[in-house]
Amino acid sequence: MTGGTPDDGLQVLPVRGIGDVVAGDDLARLIVTAAPWITDGDVLVVTSKIVSKAEGRLVEVPADGPERDEARQRVLDGETARVVARRGPTSIVQTHHGFVMAAAGIDASNVDKTHLVLLPEDPDASARRLRADLLARGLDVVIVISDTMGRAWRNGLTDVALGAAGIEALLDHRGQVDPYGNELSLTQMAVVDELAAAAELVKGKCDRVPVAVVRGHPRSGEGSGAAVLIRDAESDMFSLGTAEARAAGLRAAAVLPDSPPAAAVPPDSPPAAPVSAVPTVDPAVVARALQTLDGLRQSDVQLTDGIRLTPARGGAAALIRTGADAHRLRAALAAEGIETTAVIDDEGVTLTYGVSA
Amino acid sequence: MTGGTPDDGLQVLPVRGIGDVVAGDDLARLIVTAAPWITDGDVLVVTSKIVSKAEGRLVEVPADGPERDEARQRVLDGETARVVARRGPTSIVQTHHGFVMAAAGIDASNVDKTHLVLLPEDPDASARRLRADLLARGLDVVIVISDTMGRAWRNGLTDVALGAAGIEALLDHRGQVDPYGNELSLTQMAVVDELAAAAELVKGKCDRVPVAVVRGHPRSGEGSGAAVLIRDAESDMFSLGTAEARAAGLRAAAVLPDSPPAAAVPPDSPPAAPVSAVPTVDPAVVARALQTLDGLRQSDVQLTDGIRLTPARGGAAALIRTGADAHRLRAALAAEGIETTAVIDDEGVTLTYGVSA
After folding, report:
1. pLDDT at A324 over 90
2. Is residue B180 within 8 Å of residue B148, measured between CB atoms?
């Protein structure tokens, strides 16, 4: 069919007429009533807002005034597992689910002024339930529960998946070989996020189209839910805001311990093996740390197995300066990943490179 | 048409048969030859890789060995405006365009082993050029140039827009009112990113479908290009990796200046107005900073207009300790956003709350 459009594309279709959703509503019924044309294999992308409403995830708050702000803050605190970054009135937090979102995804739009809408408690479970409810009606479809999120580094929001059922959230290209024989590495596509984004293109922001259908997407097994998209803070290179992480560094500099923390030794354990007291430290890195202090340092520095600082001149003030210098240097070394312990005597300070027990 | 599918949805259609693209190729010709069914109003989402190839954005590198790694690093350095985060072999950098991407978007896949593919030099300009070339062939289409990117906080990659022409990159819902009378704030959707994501769903990772067409998306003016999606580092709460920002905090602690930087005074300027020497500082915040040092501090602390530290006991070592304590406290205060200057005398250290010139 030269010139014809390919027949293996996707369609993205809005579902209209679902109307207002209230607690206890049967979403499966509402959806098939509004869109009797939905068919097996379709991907239903459902805005989390209507899932939350059907599940009664609403909190009553005062309509205005400082009482509203206070109530809102309490609700936010309740939804927050940890604060990731704050600037002015904006809080980016990690929710108990693990999502990193502004204001924990709490929404005051598309709801009357005396309520806030929380995210579904377990969006993957919600997706599985809705999929089961539709299966019970004879429809075998994929469910993606979506919400709008901001991102680092890029302006503008996009819709992503909070929950999924009936689909693999990640499509793994790793191990595939391109036409040139290069193995594709690092290529796991967040397919359910892309489905959520595609669906948003036909949705409005005013709740009139809370569901869109993506038709023509290949099936990929029962799937593990969208929770696999959550990167744990441990392996995330951006687990804290820049200002927060910088402040954490300053705070760490304030509390650098003089001696290594005493290892907790259970009463009946055998004597600990001696630890290597002088870890190998790159002299170039030490030189770099010293260099950052050029013009600030006022003590003499001698490099031994560790570092020895002594006052550059006589007098009490010079001794105090050496104390400050030693701490400056410890912070500079810590910035390079080098831990130190400090022993202070009447002539100066000896820094020993970090011993981790 | 009860039961019929809505006729205002989108179609996402793969363009096959474009084949290998080489420097100097006329992309407009290749695309309309492969997909003569493309029509006015279609959105063409073009993988940046083929734009780069057509523009000759290739660099020759050795096929293997340490020479390849070195050459690759040199190319990466050339494409990097600043390093955002590094962990093991992974570098997240900001490119000269402003994109924050792993390895500056340099790609070794879908190209023979002796070349690397760089991003287009100016993806918005590339998009405008391709749009003009197609207009010259009588086709009025939207161009989105896409690439695959990772994100903070979420596993898996998605396609986003590097360049755009003929479309507004951001769709602004701000000022709209939902059915409950709430004004929608903060809602600017990154439409071109969502178009790129939708297109990726019908593309492969092996260059066989480097273009997809989104049909049915409403037109939105000539547009300002995808560069508006780049958030400048200044206003980005995640402009640095957590480890890098924490190290920056430690480094800042190392180099806290004792006196405020001397203001550069042009020779003929009138005498500077006296600056307020004692900014208002919240005593609770100072107390918090002191508290972090519980068990570490070994000097006496007196709160005055600033802070006075003196040795808790006699002897030279105690003086050195007071120097270290003063610097600890300055770092703890800096973590709370309080700058200090330090004056050291023979009895102790006086910290004065930050004077910014």
Report:
1. yes
2. no
Q: What is the band of A274 on the pLDDT scale with cuts at 50, 70, 90?
A: very low
Q: Are residues B151 and B11 in the same domain?
A: yes
Q: Which amino acid is at A243?
A: A
Residue-level length of chain B = 357
Smallest Cα distance from A65 to chain B, Å: 15
Domain count for chain B: 2
Q: Within its chain, how far is the Cα of A337 from the centroid?
A: 24
Largest CA distance in chain A: 94
Closest chain B residue to the Cα of A86, Cα to Cα: B237
Q: A47 is written with which tokens?
A: 């805005």
- Distance of alpha carbon A167 from its chain centroid, rounded? 23
Tell if the CB–CB gap between A238 and B156 is shorter than 8 Å: no
Please tell me the distance in Å from A160's CA to the nearest CA on chain B.
10
Segment A118-172, tens digit of pLDDT = 999 999 999 999 999 999 999 999 999 999 999 999 999 999 999 999 999 998 8
Judge if A208 and A134 occupy the same domain: yes
Q: How far is A269 from chain B (nearest CA, A)?
A: 28
CATH number, residue B125: 3.30.1330.100
Query: Locate tokens 């071109």: which residue?
Result: B192
Q: Are B18 and B34 in contact (CB under 8 A)?
A: yes
Beta bridge partners of B143: B44, B165
Same domain, B196 and B333: no
The verdict on B157 and B11 lying in the same domain is yes
Which residue segment(s) compose the domain that A13 sits in?
6-57+120-244
User: How many residues belong to chain A?
Assistant: 357
The confidence band for A56, taking pLDDT boundaries of 50, 70 and 90, is: very high
Spatial distance between the Cα atoms of B238 and A86, rounded to a whole number of angstroms: 11
Pair B34, B166 in one domain? yes
> Does residue B17 share a domain with residue B144?
yes
**A9-21 burial, b if ≥16 CB within 10 A, otherwise e?**
bbbbbbbeebeeb
Say if A266 falls within a structural domain: no
Residue A199's nearest CA partner among A216, A214, A189 is A214
Q: Which of B191, B202, B292 is facing A251, going by the closest CB pair? A: B292
Task: Calculate the CA B28 to chain-centre distance.
Answer: 31
Q: What percent of chain A has pLDDT over 90?
A: 74
CB-based contact A205 B229, cutoff 8 Å:
no
The bridge status of strand B158-165 relative to strand B142-149 is antiparallel
Tell me: pLDDT of B272 over 60: no
Asked if the Cβ–Cβ distance from A197 to B152 is below 8 Å, we say no
Specify whether A29 is located in the same domain as A163: yes
The pTM assigned to this predicted structure is: 0.90
Closest CA to B352 of B262, B257, B270, B268: B257
The answer to whether residue A268 is domain-embedded is: no
Residues B41 and B180 occupy one common structural domain? yes
Residue type, A311: P
DSSP A158-206: EEEEEEEESS-SEEE-TT-B-TTSPBP-S-EEEHHHHHHHHHHTT--SS
Q: What is the pLDDT of residue B260?
A: 67
Q: Is residue B203 part of a domain?
A: yes
Residues in Cβ contact with A350 at an 8 Å cutoff, skipping those fewer than 6 apart: A306, A307, A308, A309, A342, A343
Residue B113 falls within a domain, yes or no?
no
Kindly give, in sequence order, each residue whose CB lies less than 8 Å from that of residue B114, ignoring residues fewer than 6 positions away. Answer: B60, B61, B62, B63
| 3-state SS assignment for residue A82 | strand
Closest CA to A54 of A30, A34, A32, A35: A30
